[in-house]
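Q: For a teaching session next week I want to show students how multiple molecules come together into a single three-dimensional assembly. I've collected the sequence lines for a complex. Could you give me the predicted structure tokens for the whole thing so I can convert them for display?
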Amino acid sequence: MQKPSIPKGTRDFGPAEMVRRKYIFSVIEKVFQKYGYVPIETPAMENLSTLLGKYGEEGDKLLFKILNSGDFLNGIDRQKLTESEGNKIALLISEKGLRYDLTVPFARFVVQHREEITFPFKRYQIQPVWRADKPQKGRYREFFQCDADCIGSNSLLNELDLLQIISEVFAELKIRVLVKLNNRKILAGMAEVTGQADKLTDLTTAIDKVEKIGYEKVVEELKARGLTPAGIQKIVPFLTMKGTAAEKTDLLRKLLQQSETGLKGLEEMARLFDMSRAIKLPFEPEFDVSLARGLNYYTGTIIEVKAVDVEIGSICGGGRYDDLTGIFGMPGISGVGISFGADRIYDVLDQLNLFPEKVAQTSDVMVVNFEEKEQLFYLDIVKQIRSAGIKAELYPDAVKLKKQFSYADARNIPFVIIAGGDEIASGQLSLRNMKNGEQEKLTITEIISKLNHR
Amino acid sequence: MQKPSIPKGTRDFGPAEMVRRKYIFSVIEKVFQKYGYVPIETPAMENLSTLLGKYGEEGDKLLFKILNSGDFLNGIDRQKLTESEGNKIALLISEKGLRYDLTVPFARFVVQHREEITFPFKRYQIQPVWRADKPQKGRYREFFQCDADCIGSNSLLNELDLLQIISEVFAELKIRVLVKLNNRKILAGMAEVTGQADKLTDLTTAIDKVEKIGYEKVVEELKARGLTPAGIQKIVPFLTMKGTAAEKTDLLRKLLQQSETGLKGLEEMARLFDMSRAIKLPFEPEFDVSLARGLNYYTGTIIEVKAVDVEIGSICGGGRYDDLTGIFGMPGISGVGISFGADRIYDVLDQLNLFPEKVAQTSDVMVVNFEEKEQLFYLDIVKQIRSAGIKAELYPDAVKLKKQFSYADARNIPFVIIAGGDEIASGQLSLRNMKNGEQEKLTITEIISKLNHR
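A: Of course. Below is the structure for the complete assembly, covering every listed component.
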């Protein structure tokens, strides 16, 4: 019989990975809560009418569709099945799909439950999403997103909260980060002052790559995309800008003089930098006018976070959008949000060896099942240890010591207790440190106190 | 535009439900961990070859199937689509399905990762499952299961651990429970001593209902199912048995005298009751020889838990099985497991008003955005409060007090801090208790200390 397997692009998480993943999620979640964000969850399946058309044509193709249950061919003209295109047939026989991200379900949630929600609504959501992407290294068909969004408030204090959340999460995880900020209105302003407001998408797509391909290549691409030489000339100073956020702000004030939108974006940025300084944010964000992320989605602040010590792309990102829920008929709701990339954060922690040792542990102590006839004694001490809030287990079978030790080893249990008839009579049990093999004789009270003080 | 909706049988969980659900899961998870159980997670999608044929014909129909991605009609003889039955067509165009429970994916996991696993393997798993059942009150198409299983050990100590886990979980949740125990071998013994070992399934199906329909109706059903009058006569004493576990054990020893299997089951039960008494399990499980649960699945101990104060069916159940992984070509692995019904536990807690008040809270305190010009001051105090580990937020917009208060009310935030220019100058801020409307003047240090000592 062949070994069973799982669909390509999906993963099993064994205990060792799970405890590390839980560690990441719990750090993020605790910080979200500290800032007043509250959890929601939405179903894995959404109606296809909710999902289709929200992610572009390419996205529609990447949706996992669920075959209608029961007699899915009931009422369908079979002839159509032989004639129509695959896409059309899919829609005849499936009306549900797996969620593709957490943003569209969140927008749907807000509109559906608008009467029950108190705005501003600060929600976080940590759930898996599914995409029928071609699987490759670091890209999965099932992966988790950790989103926090505040909607129904235009205040920049929300952006400031998100910057603080980013700061606290990565400080807690001990990952050194570079946080980049920009504002979509500045990008719009750039297009305006170069006289090519209609080319905003071409402009941002090209300059978003400046870090990767360099400024000369960007100029080439701008040419290829049909921007005028005069326009490109005006963009150059934006791309070659250096200095602190304050210095860049001064320069931009001149460059964007002719664009009301651009100046508005600049003002928002300046205020955000001021407030960050006032609350002594532990890092100075970098003002990066080439940062675009997601092109047409954001309308204000844009945020991107990279790890300093590992090259892996962004590990968190987000921004402000003006109209999250308009697609579902509820216009004018502005929001700002960020999303942590749990898989990449996992890789960073793994590569830098930053997972706390404690995370790898399962039980704190194991009682060896040394003599079958003493089982009631073992049961009693393992019960006492658990009552003290310590994770403990009794090996379930009175098998060879070697087997029990290797079980404790494999499970990364730091201590085992060994007690035969003599030890039990004297009340002095052997506590063995599984790391260095040292053994000492202690009473059960002493053992509990020792385990509790680690 | 129509309000968007979600597929029938699925649910959104808003913040109020989420924090309550998280409370239940965290209680269960903490107890699992205390007993040395470790977490795993498996993908939502499994290959249909893994799932099909594992849940009976009816179960196969209830699997959600996922349409193959990309060009799902590629290479398929279109003519077949017009001629074949729905079932067959489904398998032509879908090769993945959503998991139906956590047991089959766990079995698949164990076989697939057998080389990496240390046995005995005590795993827990808390994830959603999907069934294309007809939705009705209390029955959903997406719901969570919380399973703990120990496989690779025949020791009854594992059963004892599970009984203790049940005891701790429900004690912590403050739900009073009745725990019923039986052993499949006793049921087999009953069938044997009545000379109708081949009718085991009919026998168990019928007597499983004795609590619901009464003993006379069960006798009728046994007749209808073709058991001989002589056989039924021998079953009567089993069904009318009364008394303590010890008394029932004594009686059963006589009744099962002729069945080796039956006596083996009885011995296991007696040992389990003895050990439960020895470790002073806080409740005496009920020995219920009519308990069958799931008919052909279990091979040893059978466990069922009901709430005493709410009529809702079982809220936890499980048992021992001899051959979890045989279906995937790895025979001879015995295990024992339990599953908590999170949805029903939620309903019990809700009906008995047992959710701790603390669970409903979101932020511990909100700082009122009283005067726009004092925002930096507010930012500073909210930062100080968070640094003390207290969940705090600043209302993001300097809008009317009334609006800010009703936000705090709706979010169940117990305290708000109000500070205008005068209060800021004096250092005496107003702390308002949102429940009773009382207000007192305190320094920020006093406020933090007060919030920390609640």
